[in-house]
Amino acid sequence: MSIGETYDPLGSHLLDPYPLYDRARDEEPVFWSPAVGAxxxxxxxxxxxxxxxPETYSSVNxxxxxxxxxxxxxxxxxxxxxxxxxxIQSDGETHARLRAPIAEVLKADRVAALEPYIRERAEELVxxxxxxxxxxxxxxYAVPLPCSTIGRLCGYDDERAKVAYSSLLAFTTLQxxxxxxxxxxxxxxxxVRLQRLLGELVRERxxxxxTDAISTVVRLxxxxxxxxxxxxxxxxxxxxxxxxxxxxxxTVPLLGMAMxxxxxxxxxxxxxxxxxxxxxxxxxxxxxYGTPASGLYRDTTRAATLGGVGLPEGARVVLRxxxxxxxxxxxxxxxxxxxxxxxxxxxxxxxxxxxxxGAGLARRQLEITLETLTARLPGLRLTAPVTFRPVHDLRHxxxxxxxx
Length: 404
Ligand code: HEM
Known about the structure:
Blueprint: H1 3-6, H2 18-27, E1 30-33, E2 38-41, H3 44-51, E3 57-58, H4 71-77, H5 92-105, H6 108-130, E4 134-136, H7 137-142, H8 144-154, H9 158-176, H10 181-207, H11 213-221, H12 230-249, H13 251-264, H14 266-274, H15 279-290, E5 295-300, E6 304-306, E7 309-311, E8 316-320, H16 321-324, H17 359-376, E9 381-382, E10 401-403
Parallel strand pairs: 2-8
Antiparallel strand pairs: 1-2, 3-5, 4-10, 5-8, 6-7, 9-10
Helix pairs in contact: 4-10, 5-11, 6-8, 6-17, 8-9, 9-10, 9-12, 10-11, 10-12, 13-15, 13-17, 14-17, 15-17
The structure holds protoporphyrin IX containing FE.
């Protein structure tokens, strides 16, 4: 069977897709996959070629659509705001305009201002289970830390943060896995719930601006003191929905993956405990080797050639960030996890015009997590094999059981 026919990302390749990607990079670096309905791009150089050429490879539709959405789910979505492009799902000038306010609220000074809070919250969460001898890390730490961080950034409390996270998690399944019609409707309802929550915040902050990220995004995206038109509100909410999704669904799995990788390479965990100066390098290696955002799509706007394959206009390609990050043509001993590796430019945060605006915030959450856990619980060990959520394009551990 050809590589494309064998490829089963939600089945036999969910736990470990890497042997298939190794074979693909050697034999058929850009292969057609009926399972995802796209050309799968696996070599580092080919990903760069796509990421450097946004005019040929459009970002208007960057997520999987595993199945067409049923009428009832479409009707539910119709109860929310009308569709509006957001920064991840746009090109050219529209993208630059939508990216500017979001990039502003994630600049280095904003991240630095959040650090004491992230550290305090990390310590509080760890103290919450440190006396128990065992923990399911995703539920007790990997989910609540990013929820609180984004909540603090945007100026809302942990109650709203919980609603936001559960809504966006359910909503994203609409595009990333196979659902029953009932599940689709529930996912669509969750999306509308998230929009309403953000719409409420946008109106609140427009009327009563503060220094939080939502107030800043509203100010930079609307016309000064004028009343907020419904269309403006819809546009701002769409961009904020994407900020919320991107800020949570990647960082949650990253924190879980960090523990899985370090504790399955325990001598490296011990090295971090002995020498915390290794933590920033370890964070980069976890991003390279774990690559939580494992795939995003592009559509060609004109005919192009990629990895020896002629693509017509309108061809769909999926960038396999996790395959590229283990490409031996780019990284020495690419298949080895090594926290002391010399830094190389991994693609875990993408590259070019759509490069992750939240990279700095994600890095700090990971580093602070490692600083806190190596200091407080150096005896950590993994007590059960890890499984992954059956969703496309994310490497998301379902549960991470730890003991000490
Ligand atoms: C482990 C953590 C993270 C990973 C692996 C990650 C990964 C990525 C990747 C690969 C892209 C490129 C998208 C593309 O090329 O189409 C991206 C874009 C983006 N990320 Fe992140 N991200 C992370 C954390 C965050 C955080 C914490 C935030 C916000 C708080 C964030 C917000 C965004 C946004 C808004 C974009 C869109 C930028 C644009 O299209 O111009 N990300 N991210």
